[in-house]
Write a structure and sequence with these properties.
There is one protein chain. By secondary structure, the chain is mainly beta. It has one domain (about 1-75): Nucleic acid-binding proteins (OB fold (Dihydrolipoamide Acetyltransferase, E2P), Beta Barrel). The chain has no helices and five strands. It has strands at about 1-10, 20-25, 30, 45-55, 65-75. The chain has a five-stranded mixed beta barrel. β2 (about 20-25) and β3 (about 30) form a beta hairpin. The protein starts with a strand and ends with a strand.
Length: about 80
């Protein structure tokens, strides 16, 4: 399922660490590994377009896995 969401990037200290996008509505998505490093900055606000991957499980299991296709940093 393709989505566009706006939220804040967070780094979670679970296992080897995991990156998350917490939307303005409070929904947490786990960012799939391999995302652009310029997105992965804790506290940064961004508008992200991507695909929810229901065929992937992770060790962090902090929310649905979001494969980022593109993003825009919001000032």
């Amino acid at each position: 399922m393709s989505i566009t969401v706006t939220g804040t990037i967070e780094h979670r200290q679970l296992g080897m660490g995991a990156w998350a996008l917490v939307t303005d509505e409070g929904v947490t998505y786990e960012i799939l590994k391999g995302a652009d490093k310029s997105l992965l900055k804790a506290g940064q606000k961004a508008k992200v377009k991507g695909q929810v991957r229901e065929d992937i499980m992770t060790t962090a299991m902090i929310g649905p896995v979001l494969e980022v296709k593109s993003f825009e940093v919001i000032s």
